[in-house]
Amino acid sequence: MKERKDINVQIGARIQQAREISGYTQEKLADKVDVSTQYISDLERGIVGTSVPTLIKICNTLCISSDYILMGRSGQNDVSGILNRLQYLSQDEIKIVENSINLMIAAFQSREKI
After folding, report:
1. Taking a C-beta distance cutoff of 8 angstroms, is the pair 42, 60 a contact?
2. Distance of CA 17 to CAs 99, 104, 110, Å?
3. Which of 14, 59, 83, 110 falls 20 to 30 Å from 74 in CA-CA distance?
4. 34-58 pLDDT, tens digit each
């Protein structure tokens, strides 16, 4: 068995988390990125590292920044994960989310006035 490097374990954990939030299975992510399911499994467990081109494909597929995957930092107001999850909702569900967001923004604005 290969020795796992700490950085690979951290990157793998962030990839796994982003994949799960996005609703992808390892198989589906592997298919989209054009790698094997075993590679995704090994990557998520920190057994292997990844190349820059593969990392770019993973980030694009999961709609996540490379800063998050590599460094654990998400961009300020990075809503790409939320947007990715919304794409699976129906039009009626999107309307509910939109109405909820409008109510929350109004509540935040009124709180700021106090």
Report:
1. no
2. 28, 26, 34
3. 110
4. 999 999 999 999 999 999 999 999 9
Summarised one tens digit per residue, pLDDT across range 9-23 is 999 999 999 999 888
Q: Is the pTM of this model over 0.85?
A: no
Encoding tokens for residue 84?
């990715």
Instruction: Label residues 68-98 b or e (16+ Cβ within 10 Å = b).
Output: bbeeeebeeeeebbeebeeeeeeeeeeeeee
What gap in Å lies between CA 61 and CA 56, rounded to an integer?
Answer: 8
| Angstrom distance (rounded) from CA 82 to CA 6 | 28
Contacts of 63 (CB under 8 A, 6+ apart): 22, 80, 81, 83, 84
Query: Are 44 and 29 spatial neighbours (Cβ–Cβ below 8 Å)?
Result: no
